[in-house]
Each structure stands twice: as C-alpha cells, then as structure tokens.
Specification:
Shape: elongated
Largest sheet: 5 strands, antiparallel
Radius of gyration: 35 Å
Order of helices and strands: HEEEEEEEEEEH
Number of strands: 10
Strand content: 15-25%
Distance between the termini: 136 Å
Strand order of the largest sheet: 1-2-3-4-7
Helix content: 25-40%
C-alpha cells in the first residue's frame, strides 16, 4: 500500500551458526588433556592401592611363618638316644626335634603325657618360591621303644611364598653375638649339641609382584627345652 513502512527484521540465525572447526578442535584438545590427567591420577592411585594390598598380605604371611618357626623352636628337644636336638643347622635350612604333640597318636593338645619328638624341617623351595615346613612324626618300635622318623610319615606345608629364602643364624647362648656357622654357612656336626639360640630373618616379597617391595622380619629364640633335656 502506498505510504506503508516495512520494518526489516534482524537476522536471528546469525547466533545459531554453531562452533567453527577451529573452536571444536581446541575444545577437544582441552578435554583430551583433562582426560589424560585424570587417567594418570586414577591409574597411579589404583597401583598404589594394589601395592599396599600386596605388601600387607605378604607381610601377614611372613608373620604367620615367623610365628610358626619361633613357636616350634621353643619346644625343640633332644631325644635321649640322639646326639643333639638339631640334625641340620644351615643358614637357609634347619632340622630339629620338637615336642609338638601332646601324645604320640594325636595332633591336638588333649593329653598331658610327654609327646614323642617330631622331626621338624624348615627349608626353601626355589622352584615354587615357598618356605616349607615338614613335620615327620616318630615311629616307635613296640618292643624296643626305639624311635625312627621315616620319610613316609613326613607332611610338608607351604607357609609362605616369597622371593627370598629365610636366613638362620645359630649361637651358643641367648646372649652370644658370634655365629656358630663356618665359612660354608653350616654348623659342624660336632657343634650341633651346643646350639642354644637361633636368629631368624623372614623376608616378605610376593614372587608374582616383586615391584611391591620387600619387608624383612627378624626374631631370635632361646632354646630352653634343650638345656632342660640335656641336664
């Protein structure tokens, strides 16, 4: 119509054009950096927790092993017809007699009778990375009452798996500081009756995850029963 003014509307689509390719690439780059940083922190935290769990578990196993060794050594005993309580005293292995069971036919402490000595052996298996405890119960002759410890009566248990063998050091008394072992690391047969104290080092380190680190446990036992039985 003549004289009508037509008002031009602004272009409302100018603000809906979206992101440019450059802006999108910058945003994706920033997001990638943040995701990588978060991933690094998460992986590091996960590894830290895993390492702590492994170290805690292996340390607990080592403590159980140490307790088993010290408890058994405290009841080490020299049988009447044996030259010494120990049969082997090496830096990585020991074997000795101990009064473990309350009677000769049971593995439970239900009797007050003096038990027959059990032959105890602690050793390290380099193949399975296991600290082994072998218990061999006595076989008593019904007529002569003589005792023997045949290998057929032996029972072996893996106490702990670790990358390092236990270390045993032998002394002539509880206060002695000089080791009885010679250059070979083994106590001479003639000196076995004189062993009166044993120091033990058990190192906890998981063979499957050695990166978790190692934890050494050290204890020392004075053998009171040997003195009593020898007197």
């Amino acid at each position: 119509m003549p004289g009508r003014v037509v008002k031009q509307c602004p272009d409302d689509h100018r603000n809906d054009r979206g992101l440019t390719l450059v802006e999108l690439m910058v945003a994706m780059g920033i997001a990638s950096v943040l995701l990588v940083a978060i991933g690094v922190v998460f992986i590091s935290s996960t590894r830290g927790v895993s390492t702590l769990n492994v170290k805690t578990a292996t340390t607990a196993d080592a403590r159980i092993t140490m307790e088993a060794m010290t408890r058994t050594l405290r009841v080490a005993f020299k049988p009447a017809h044996e030259a010494a309580a120990f049969t082997v005293a090496d830096t990585s292995e020991l074997s000795f007699y101990a009064l473990i069971y309350r009677d000769a036919t049971s593995t439970t402490a239900t009797s007050t009778a003096t038990p027959d000595p059990t032959l105890v052996r602690y050793s390290y298996d380099t193949t399975s990375k296991c600290v082994n405890q072998t218990l061999t119960t006595a076989l008593v002759d019904a007529t002569t009452k003589a005792m023997s410890w045949p290998t057929t009566r032996a029972r072996t248990t893996c106490l702990a798996r670790t990358t390092t063998a236990p270390v045993f050091i032998y002394y002539r008394s509880g206060s002695a500081t000089a080791s009885m072992a010679g250059s070979t690391g083994q106590v001479a047969t003639a000196d076995l009756p004189d062993v009166a104290s044993v120091a033990i080092t058990v190192t906890a380190q998981d063979p499957a995850q050695p990166q978790a680190g190692s934890v050494p446990l050290i204890d020392r036992v004075t053998l009171g029963n040997i003195t009593t039985s020898s007197s």
